[in-house]
Amino acid sequence: MDETKETTSSSNSATDLFKQGAACNVLFVNSVEMESLTGPQAIAKAITETLAAETPPSATIVHFKVSTQGITLTDNQRKLFFRRHYPISTITFCDVDPQERKWTKSDGGGSAKLFGFVARKQGSTTDNVCHLFAELDPDQPAAAIVNFVSRVMLGSSQKR
């Protein structure tokens, strides 16, 4: 009897999490314009361009919140921006780097997996921008973040 209760409560908490959304801190690395490119090719190209830059961008810690409304980024220190929101309808793809490259943290904290999402450029129907991030907290791995974003996107697209 107890086992059934645990299963029910864990599925309810997963449903609640899905409805409320989830958030964690990550390193915002870069945003790269992609024209109409999306999918794993867009993420790979954005990472290639970012890593090849003469002066690589300095990553900034941002609060990354995912909900059924979309993705909201908050730069708590306001180094690059204050807050950016990407409605779920504009997000076309989210995944880890298909080539499994890593971001070298500037604080000497080693390297972290890169991941990103592709969103329609504001005011455009064809142009995309790929937003790149790196893991910050080992308890919040890139794969888990990407899986959650994908589940939220899938759930939202079924309701439309």
What does this structure look like?
The chain is of the alpha+beta class and 160 residues long. Helix content is 32%, strand content 36%. It is built from three helices and eight strands. The chain has helices at 2-20, 39-52, 142-159; strands spanning 22-35, 60-67, 70-74, 83-87, 91-96, 102-104, 111-120, 128-134. Strands 1, 2, 3, 4, 5, 6, 7 and 8 form an eight-stranded antiparallel beta sheet that branches. β7 (111-120) and β8 (128-134) form a beta hairpin. It is globular and about 40 Å long. The protein starts with a helix and ends with a helix. The relative contact order is 0.21.
Question: How would you sum up this structure in a few lines?
Answer:
By secondary structure, the chain is an alpha+beta fold.
Strand content: 35-45%
Average residue pLDDT? 85
Structural shape:
globular
Helicity, as a percent range: 25-40%
What is the H-and-E element order?
Answer: HEHEEEEEEEH
Count of β-strands:
8
Separate helix tally = 3
| Major sheet characteristics | 8 strands, antiparallel
N-to-C span: 38 Å
Which ranges are low-confidence, i.e. pLDDT below 50, for 5 or more consecutive residues? 1-12
Structural class: alpha+beta
Radius of gyration: 16 Å
